[in-house]
Design goal:
Blueprint (H helix, E strand, L loop, with lengths): L11 H11 L11 E4 L4 E3 L2 E9 L2 E3 L2 E9 L4 E3 L2 E8 L2 E3 L2 E9 L4 E3 L2 E2 L3 E3 L4 E3 L2 E2 L6
Parallel strand pairs: 1-3, 2-4, 3-5, 4-6, 5-7, 6-8, 7-9, 8-10, 9-11, 9-12, 10-13, 11-14
């Protein structure tokens, strides 16, 4: 029902006209998918793909992502991590390779070697290993 008690009226011609006007517009890219490993959960094995993975629980294995890996304060990764952007507020036990940027939060620690063109370590963050900083690829 429309405003003031009048029946709502939708003309089929109007709907077709609106669709025709927007057919030539480009489609938007799909947003990256997001996965959360919940606190208390343990995942064993290698994870690969695109998007964002937020680790709040434990991952025992390799993470290889085109996208971002976020290790929450409750998160633990036992294995190598490779991604475009890596943010660590929990613990990573293994090598870390960030293609664009590595951020170690004040509660974060990396027990292993790191490779990244851009490294930010907040006061309290720990990196126990060697760090190499290759030039950023354009």
């Amino acid at each position: 029902m429309g405003f003031f008690g009048k029946p709502a009226r939708i003309a089929e011609d109007e709907d077709a006209l609106v669709q025709e006007q927007y057919e030539d517009l480009p489609t938007l890219p799909e947003p990256p998918s997001s996965t959360v490993i919940a606190a208390g959960a343990t995942v064993t094995g290698n994870l690969q793909g695109e998007g964002v993975i937020q680790v709040e629980g434990t991952v025992e294995g390799e993470l290889n992502l085109k996208g971002a890996v976020i290790v929450a304060p409750t998160g633990l990764v036992k294995g190598p991590v490779t991604a475009d952007v890596i943010r660590v507020a929990g613990c990573v036990e293994g090598t870390v390779s960030a293609r664009e940027r590595l951020l170690l939060e004040k509660t974060g620690s990396v027990e292993g070697d790191a490779s990244t063109p851009s490294l930010e370590v907040m006061d309290g963050g720990r990196l126990n290993g060697r760090c190499t900083m290759p030039k950023k690829k354009n």
